[in-house]
């Protein structure tokens, strides 16, 4: 087959005109992602009104705009808890080994090995999984020179610039100039998309209010710590005397960095009698939001509730998360079958009659227990044990039989 780069240029001895035409098409300036105008995203405070306005702009019937809701998704993904939950679920799928099957169902070891370490495979799978959270993905294949060798890459086009309902691509999402990307000649080969065209706004849509509530609760809690931890100071003096006021300011500044104010000696100041709290109300709000985010992404609360958690609860929660990961793997297989493989066949990367598959998941702990129990009655293949469990088998260990001890009672033993 030659090197991997040669494989990607001419994988199965096909006529090179197919890939050459693609390279010429890409170099001719038809790369869509390079024409996207970068934008600076405002970092102003987000609230529920911002969320509802973004929803309305995305769900309107005529000329919908998706950049407000996608910008909001980018903003809430800065929340570390939400980010960890999304990564936990996605990385479980992205790290799962796959295999390329021939039409007869047998694994094509050559293709599987060559594609396992390809960066574009990871990016394609990531774009597919992101449709669960952000509704839609549009990406573009292209060749980039790495060490003077053309390497196939895949880049996702910013979702702010894509209207998946009407099929428009905006090079500048603040402008009304657009193109119909589904009518372009590169669509279905160099340009591919994933996700539903007419559906909800994705899983992150329900996470937006929880993140906004968390930020509100966290800011209020920090203010509570400031007030109760370092209470403001009050000083009474003759405010008509500038010398005394300046001396009072200097005294208060020298005493520390806590907030202070100066009033006239004829005035009075009292703290309002509020509800006495140590911050439990904010702690409960943050815990509620974190639990809701976990339920939305992972289907359960995994490894967070250390107070009410148990070993059985954690195992059940992990099982629920594994079911969601299996669903994500099925989504990847479906998108490869319907979209990715046909595109790579047009580009001359993959031959006809191949499938992208994940092997069935196995519980190694349960399988090992079965092997140990069966070893007492059956012969186990050492090569299979080494491949499945990574245990180097050099032979069969025989158990030493205990020596038969007997008493030799001679005639002279008893008198």
In short:
By secondary structure, this protein is an alpha+beta fold.
Helix-strand sequence: HHHHHEHHEEEEEEHEHEHHEHH
Unreliable residue stretches:
1-29
**Termini Cα gap:** 91 Å
Structural class: alpha+beta
How many helices in DSSP terms?
13
Shape category: flat
Subunit organisation of the chains: single chain
Strand content: 5-15%
Kindly state the number of beta strands: 10
Q: Indicate the mean pLDDT.
A: 80
Would you give an account of this structure?
With 415 residues, this protein is α+β, with helices and mostly antiparallel strands. The protein folds into 2 domains: 239 residues, no CATH class; 85 residues, no CATH class. Helix content is 46%, strand content 12%. The protein is built from 13 helices and 10 strands. A 3-stranded antiparallel beta sheet has the order 3-2-7. Strands 4-5-6 form a 3-stranded antiparallel beta sheet, with no helix packed on it. Helix 3 crosses helix 4 and helix 7 crosses helix 11. The longest helix is centred in the last third of the chain and has 36 residues. The radius of gyration is 33 Å and the shape is flat. It starts with a helix and ends in a 26-residue tail after the last helix. 22% of the residues are buried.
Would you spell out the secondary-structure blueprint of this structure?
Elements lengths: L3 H6 L7 H11 L20 H12 L7 H10 L3 H15 L3 E4 L7 H8 L2 H16 L1 E11 L2 E8 L5 E2 L4 E2 L9 E2 L10 E5 L8 H26 L3 E5 L4 H13 L5 E5 L15 H19 L12 H36 L8 E4 L5 H11 L7 H8 L26
Parallel strand pairs: 8-9
Antiparallel strand pairs: 1-10, 2-3, 2-7, 4-5, 5-6
